[in-house]
Each structure stands twice: as structure tokens, then as C-alpha cells.
Amino acid sequence: MEEWIFRVTAVALPAILAITLHEAAHGFVAWRLGDDTAYRLGRVTFNPLRHIDPFGTVLLPALMYFTTGFVFGWAKPVPVNFGRLGHPRRDMVWVALAGPGVNFALAVLSALLWGLVDPHSGTVGQWLKAATEVSILVNVILMVFNLIPLPPLDGGRVAVGILPDALAFPLARLERFGMLILLGAAFLLPTIGRQIGVDLNVMSWVLGPPVDAVIDLIQILTGND
């Protein structure tokens, strides 16, 4: 039981913080740029309880971690009225980048803490070492995943905000299909690939190299290389 609690908390707590602070950052930046929708709903807060989706933040990631080893989840999306921003198209980019930016900062802080922890200092030290390792990985994966240039992901909103209209408008119209495309790439294609004996794990192709590159960068920045 103690080992089970150790594993669950070392994985769940960093994952919940990564997901919920990601959403809080969107709301905070939107508030500072003119849209107080999230603020009025009490979503501009670093209290994870305000952002947790019981299924997407807790149950699904836990089930996937202990069955597949791959973690996928979400928090309750922070509502943003882009029309209320001071400069909607430009500010949309900053609001979108806030979430991945917080994940990068959390990964760097976790790496700094990891370097300070002595794993031989007992159970607490071992737990901190494990939790910070999970935090680095989860935050980097969440950052890279959300920067995929497909709406409704943050990268898609950034692309819509900076591309010329001829490219931005067709991309924006993909938003209604974005989650279906992502779920198909993450789950359906690998399943089909296993049936026909072909590696169709598209998400590992897309996420693997940039995740490794960002972790290498963080190790260099924090002196842990």
C-alpha cells in the first residue's frame, strides 16, 4: 500500500499541477489583456481544485498511466472571449502561449529542485526525486503537445494569429474537427497499426524529438546535463 501511494502521488500531483496551472495561465493573461471572463468565474487562480475535471484530469490519466504508460488528460478549459481583448488577433497569441510558457517554467523549476535533492535522504528525498522527474516529463510533453499547430490547441491559435488570412481562416475552420483528429492520431491509428503490423504511432513521431530536445535544453540550463 505504501509503495502504491508513493507511485500514485509522485505521478498524480505533478500532472494535476501541470494541467491546472496551464489553464490558470490562459485566464490570467486574458484578464491582463482585457477579457475578465475567466476572472469573473473564479478561474484566474492557482488553486487546482478550480480547474480539475474529474474525468479528464484525474481518472483518465490515472487509468492510462497504469494500463498503457501513456498519459493523456485535460482540465476544464478556461473561457476566453477573444473579442474582448484589446487587440484580439495579436493578444490571442499571447493568451495561447501562456499555458505552454507556464509548463516550461514548471519543468525548469522541477529540474532545479531535482538537482538539489539527495535521493539517499530517505523516503521524502526519494519521493521528491521521483515527483520532479515526472514533473519535468509531464510539463514538457504538455507544452510540446499543446504547441501542435492545430486548433483548438494553443499552437493552432498561435498559427491562426500569425499566419496571413489566406492560411489562417482555413486553419481556424478546422477547430471543430481538431479534437477528433488528435484522438484519431493518438488512439485509432496506433490500434489500426497493431492490427496490420505497421507502426502508426503518429504522436510519438510528432512529440518524441521535440520533447527530447526541450529536456536536453532544460538539463543544460539547470546544470544537470
From TrEMBL:
<dbReference type="GO" id="GO:0006508">
    <property type="term" value="P:proteolysis"/>
</dbReference>
<dbReference type="InterPro" id="IPR008915">
    <property type="entry name" value="Peptidase_M50"/>
</dbReference>
<keyword id="KW-1003">Cell membrane</keyword>
<dbReference type="InterPro" id="IPR044537">
    <property type="entry name" value="Rip2-like"/>
</dbReference>
<dbReference type="Pfam" id="PF02163">
    <property type="entry name" value="Peptidase_M50"/>
</dbReference>
<dbReference type="GO" id="GO:0005886">
    <property type="term" value="C:plasma membrane"/>
</dbReference>
<feature type="transmembrane region" description="Helical">
    <location>
        <begin position="51"/>
        <end position="72"/>
    </location>
</feature>
<keyword id="KW-0479">Metal-binding</keyword>
<keyword id="KW-0472">Membrane</keyword>
<keyword id="KW-0378">Hydrolase</keyword>
<keyword id="KW-0645">Protease</keyword>
<keyword id="KW-1133">Transmembrane helix</keyword>
<comment type="similarity">
    <text>Belongs to the peptidase M50B family.</text>
</comment>
<feature type="transmembrane region" description="Helical">
    <location>
        <begin position="177"/>
        <end position="197"/>
    </location>
</feature>
<dbReference type="GO" id="GO:0008237">
    <property type="term" value="F:metallopeptidase activity"/>
</dbReference>
<feature type="transmembrane region" description="Helical">
    <location>
        <begin position="127"/>
        <end position="148"/>
    </location>
</feature>
<keyword id="KW-0812">Transmembrane</keyword>
<keyword id="KW-0482">Metalloprotease</keyword>
<protein>
    <submittedName>
        <fullName>Site-2 protease family protein</fullName>
    </submittedName>
</protein>
<feature type="domain" description="Peptidase M50">
    <location>
        <begin position="132"/>
        <end position="166"/>
    </location>
</feature>
<keyword id="KW-0862">Zinc</keyword>
<feature type="transmembrane region" description="Helical">
    <location>
        <begin position="93"/>
        <end position="115"/>
    </location>
</feature>
<dbReference type="GO" id="GO:0046872">
    <property type="term" value="F:metal ion binding"/>
</dbReference>
<dbReference type="InterPro" id="IPR052348">
    <property type="entry name" value="Metallopeptidase_M50B"/>
</dbReference>
